[in-house]
Amino acid sequence: MNSAQRIWPEGEQFTKPVTIQTNTGPLDVEITYIVPPFEVVVETWQNKDPEKAYPLFRQFLVDWDQQQKLTDNVLMMYLQAYEGASEAIFDTRATHMKDTLTHNSEHFPAASNSIN
After folding, report:
1. Which of 16, 34, 36, 69 is 20 to 30 Å from 99 by CA-CA measure?
2. Do 97 and 35 meet the contact criterion of CB atoms below 8 Å apart?
3. Which runs of E-coded beta strand occur in the chain?
């Protein structure tokens, strides 16, 4: 294990395909995500305030491969127009993070279950 390895890969960017169901059929999009600080993930998970939902959600996304640049207005339009878009985006991110955390944790020694 070197000192640069971390279980939580804050700041790492990754690109994954996401299928968003639209009125005319599925739209395949390559989305570039960023891993925010762990505190942001916890705040997003615990959030019950609709006013804070979008700003928290937006911290996970960098860009996508569509002709329109991923601005707040464009993203909000997609989220409002296509039911399930936010879930598809977040589910893809969650699957990647689950695999990443499992892989990263293999580089650290297992915690002892014994009591001194």
Report:
1. 69
2. yes
3. 13-22, 25-34, 61-64
- The stretch 20-29 carries a mean pLDDT of 91
Residues 6 or more apart whose CB falls under 8 angstroms from that of 11 comprise 34, 35
pTM equals: 0.81
Distance of CA 81 to the CA centre of its chain: 20
Residue 82: pLDDT above 50?
yes
Give CA–CA dist 86/70, Å, rounded. Answer: 14
> Contact at 8 Å (CB) between 27 and 44?
no
Helix (H/G/I), strand (E/B), else coil: 106: coil
**Per-residue CA distances from 63 to 14, 34, 58, 102, 111 (Å):** 10, 10, 10, 26, 38
Name the residue type at position 45.
W
